[in-house]
C-alpha cells in the first residue's frame, strides 16, 4: 500500500511525508524531486521554459510510474489534483490519499520566505493563495481522509495518518 499526501503548498506534505516514511519504514518519494530528476532541471526552470501545461504533463507521467510501487509515502506537489487521472493513479493498488489542509494565512506564513514557488511570484501572494485555494477546493475534496494541519505539529499529523491507515 502507498500513502500519498496531497494538498496546497505549505500544508506540510514534505515534512510529514519524511516522518511518516521513517515511522512506517516505507520508501519516501517526493513527486517534485522525481520530476526534477526526469527533466534534469528545476521546477521553476520547467515553468519558465515550457509553461505549466508541460509541467502538468510530466507530473502525470511521473505520478503514473510512481504509483506502481508499493510501501511508499508519496509527497505530491500542490497541483497534482488538477488532473483527476493523477488521483486515480495514486489510489490504484489500494493506495490511500490523504489531504493536508491549512488556511491561506498559515500557508503564506509557512512559504513566504522559501522562494522557488513560481505560482506565488506575484505582487500579492496571499491573495493569490486565497484565489488558488478557492479554485482548487473541489479538486482537493477527492478523498475522505482530510487533516487540517493549522494547529497540529508534524508529529501529530503523522499520528492522525497512522490512525487512518490502521482503520483500513
From TrEMBL:
Tell me the residue numbers annotated for binding ATP.
10-15, 117
Pathway this chain belongs to: Metabolic intermediate biosynthesis; chorismate biosynthesis; chorismate from D-erythrose 4-phosphate and phosphoenolpyruvate: step 5/7
Q: What is its EC number?
A: 2.7.1.71
The answer to whether UniProt assigns keyword Cytoplasm to this entry is yes
What SUPFAM superfamilies has UniProt attached to this entry? Answer: P-loop containing nucleoside triphosphate hydrolases (SSF52540)
Question: What function is annotated for this protein?
Answer: Catalyzes the specific phosphorylation of the 3-hydroxyl group of shikimic acid using ATP as a cosubstrate.
**What is the name of the protein in this document?**
Shikimate kinase
Amino acid at each position: 500500500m502507498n500513502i500519498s499526501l496531497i494538498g496546497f503548498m505549505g500544508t506540510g506534505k514534505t515534512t510529514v511525508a519524511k516522518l511518516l516514511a521513517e515511522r512506517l519504514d516505507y520508501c519516501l518519494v517526493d513527486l517534485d524531486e522525481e520530476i526534477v530528476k526526469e527533466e534534469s532541471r528545476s521546477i521553476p526552470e520547467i515553468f519558465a521554459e515550457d509553461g505549466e501545461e508541460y509541467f502538468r504533463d510530466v507530473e502525470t507521467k511521473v505520478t503514473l510510474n510512481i504509483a506502481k510501487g508499493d510501501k511508499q509515502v508519496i509527497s505530491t506537489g500542490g497541483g497534482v489534483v488538477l488532473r483527476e487521472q493523477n488521483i486515480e493513479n495514486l489510489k490504484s493498488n489500494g493506495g490511500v490519499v490523504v489531504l493536508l489542509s491549512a488556511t491561506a494565512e498559515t500557508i503564506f506564513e509557512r512559504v513566504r520566505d522559501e522562494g522557488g514557488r513560481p505560482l506565488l511570484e506575484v505582487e500579492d501572494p496571499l491573495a493569490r493563495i486565497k484565489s488558488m485555494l478557492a479554485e482548487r477546493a473541489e479538486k482537493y475534496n477527492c478523498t475522505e481522509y482530510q487533516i487540517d494541519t493549522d494547529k497540529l505539529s508534524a508529529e501529530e499529523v503523522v499520528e492522525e495518518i497512522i490512525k487512518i491507515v490502521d482503520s483500513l
